[in-house]
């Protein structure tokens, strides 16, 4: 979805390019030539990172931001190139194809059109790995065709192609060096993976040759060449669900089987094939998410989106136990289709609940909602509760933002007059409560509140609308990378 800041930045970027096309240009043919040069200039950042996650790490931004920039710059370069072509066609100048420069212009333009066409979601969903490799190959081929099209007797704009090639090569060598060092390729044995399955999900435990510090919410790109015939050309990002305050010798991954490599992993796990294959990993990727200063955290997940919340959950509970975070309330909402869908992650949730022991385990609450169930609420594992139907997100949010759900430790509940320690049940929140009511009840929650989401687009849209109305009372929304 577009934010106001995103729309403003896009307008500034578009306006700047349009200004450069028309600045001190008196003819349409001159504008066409200027647009062609600007298209080559815009191609430079597109080649700065063949691996967008690695490039995002170097800049210290999220993968979502880098993808948005890459997409915007790519369409701008294509639009400028298209305008350049239309001006040439409209000018009716001779364009003999027996000249290599003109021939490569046609080839480059055709490759760019094909590249943009393949960006459509239909082609990406068929096979993302095939789409990615095709996208990269077409990008390199189109850059070469543009280089052959540009006049060789002029330094500019061929210099822009050299800059693009230099950036691409530099980032590639830097990433290769990182992979070699991370996996200790020349120092000993490679890491191995134990692949199992549980209730239709794939679980992988990576046994690392070199311990690795992974922050909560980070993921790794995994390369397992022995899984299938084409797997040596594939590397997939997987969320790390394990977390430790120090370096880890093993990493746990929870994977939803879909198509391609993940389906092959499930097949091998069921057949006990490649039970301990050699793996290489790249990462960890993703920025560290700061949750230490929030007093109340509402986590919302659907399906396998729970994998993005598990490491945050473990770190917050650890931080609470050793008094490193301000959190006093964590409420995890998990929306799944039926009970069977939740069995794969049930043991992981139970392990997180087992760590919540300090102050009688008052910080964490887990609510599981089953879409296709009409049974009354029932226990779901250790201390978690399952409810039928879809999660009433507005009702839950209003209860959390009021602060009445925050449980205080037993020692804090005892006042100086020796009153009873029996806690009062919170009032049932009303979905139609206005903003003024939420502000008046904020006294019970004197700190900031964070809402994190890793779920379907429907759930994300609902939470965006809800949180947008409560920004004034110290509520923030964070969409996790998954």
The stretches of 5 or more residues where confidence is low (pLDDT under 50) are 413-443
Write down the domain tally: 3
Shape: globular
Query: Total number of helical segments?
Result: 15
Number of beta-strand segments: 13
Strand content: 15-25%
Give a short overview.
This protein has 482 residues and is of the alpha/beta class.
Describe this structure in words.
It is a single chain. The protein has 482 residues and is α/β, with parallel strands linked by helices. It folds into 3 domains: 4-177, Four Helix Bundle (Hemerythrin (Met), subunit A); 191-285, Beta Barrel (Elongation Factor Tu (Ef-tu), domain 3), CATH 2.40.30; 294-408 and 424-479, Rossmann fold (3-Layer(aba) Sandwich), CATH 3.40.50.80. It is 46% helix and 18% strand. It is built from 15 helices and 13 strands. The strands form 2 sheets. A 7-stranded mixed β-sheet has the order 10-11-9-8-7-12-13, sandwiched between helices. Strands 4-3-6-1-2-5 form a 6-stranded antiparallel β-sheet. Strand 8, helix 11 (339-355) and strand 9 form a beta-alpha-beta unit. The two termini are 16 Å apart. Residues 413-443 have low confidence and may be disordered.
Secondary structure blueprint with pairings:
Layout (H helix, E strand, L loop, with lengths): L3 H19 L5 H19 L5 H8 L3 H29 L8 H18 L3 H6 L1 H22 L8 H26 L7 E8 L2 E12 L6 E5 L12 E4 L8 E8 L5 H11 L6 E8 L8 E9 L3 H16 L7 E8 L2 H17 L8 E7 L7 E2 L4 E5 L4 H10 L7 H4 L21 H6 L7 E7 L2 H12 L6 E5 L3
Parallel strand pairs: 7-8, 7-12, 8-9, 9-11, 12-13
Antiparallel strand pairs: 1-2, 1-6, 2-5, 3-4, 3-6, 10-11
Helix pairs in contact: 1-2, 2-4, 2-8, 3-4, 4-5, 5-7, 10-11
């Amino acid at each position: 979805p577009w934010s106001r800041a995103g729309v403003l930045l896009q307008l500034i970027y578009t306006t700047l390019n349009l200004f450069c096309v028309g600045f001190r240009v008196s003819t349409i043919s001159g504008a066409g030539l200027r647009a062609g040069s600007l298209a080559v200039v815009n191609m430079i950042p597109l080649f700065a990172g063949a691996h967008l996650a690695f490039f995002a790490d170097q800049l210290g931004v999220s993968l979502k931001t880098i993808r948005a920039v890459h997409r915007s710059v790519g369409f701008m370069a294509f639009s400028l190139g298209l305008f350049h072509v239309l001006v040439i066609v409209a000018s009716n100048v001779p364009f003999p194809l027996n000249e290599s420069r003109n021939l490569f212009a046609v080839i480059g333009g055709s490759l760019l059109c094909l590249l943009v066409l393949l960006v459509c979601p239909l082609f990406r969903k068929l096979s993302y790995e095939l789409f990615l490799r095709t996208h990269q190959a077409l990008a390199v081929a189109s850059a070469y065709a543009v280089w052959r099209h540009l006049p060789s007797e002029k330094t500019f704009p061929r210099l822009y192609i050299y800059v693009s090639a230099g950036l691409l090569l530099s980032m590639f060598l830097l990433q290769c060096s990182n992979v070699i060092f991370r996996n200790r390729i020349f120092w000993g044995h490679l890491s191995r993976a134990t692949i199992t399955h549980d209730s239709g999900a794939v679980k992988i435990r990576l046994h690392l040759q070199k311990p690795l510090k992974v922050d909560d919410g980070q993921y790794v790109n995994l390369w397992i060449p022995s899984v299938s015939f084409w797997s040596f050309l594939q590397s997939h990002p997987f969320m790390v669900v394990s977390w430790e305050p120090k370096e880890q010798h093993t990493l746990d991954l929870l994977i939803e089987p879909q198509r391609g490599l993940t389906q092959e992993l499930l097949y091998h796990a069921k057949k006990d094939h490649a039970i301990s294959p050699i793996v290489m990993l790249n990462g960890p990727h993703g920025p560290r998410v700061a949750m230490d200063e929030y007093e109340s955290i509402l986590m919302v997940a659907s399906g396998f989106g729970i994998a993005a919340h598990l490491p945050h959950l473990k770190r917050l509970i650890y931080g609470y136990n050793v008094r490193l975070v301000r959190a006093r309330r964590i409420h995890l909402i998990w929306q799944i289709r039926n009970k069977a869908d939740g069995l794969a992650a049930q043991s992981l949730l139970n392990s997180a609940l087992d760590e919540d022991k300090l102050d009688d385990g008052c910080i964490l609450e887990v609510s599981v909602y089953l879409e296709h169930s009409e049974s009354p609420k029932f226990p779901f594992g250790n201390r978690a509760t399952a409810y039928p139907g879809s999660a009433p997100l507005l009702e839950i949010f209003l209860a959390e933002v009021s602060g009445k759900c925050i449980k205080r430790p037993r020692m804090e509940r005892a006042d100086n007059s020796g009153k009873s320690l029996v806690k009062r049940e919170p009032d049932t929140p009303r979905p139609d409560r206005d903003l003024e009511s939420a502000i008046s009840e904020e006294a019970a929650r004197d700190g900031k509140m964070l809402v994190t989401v890793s779920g379907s687009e429907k759930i994300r849209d609902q939470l965006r609308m809800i949180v947008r109305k409560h920004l004034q009372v110290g509520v923030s929304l964070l969409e996790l990378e998954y």
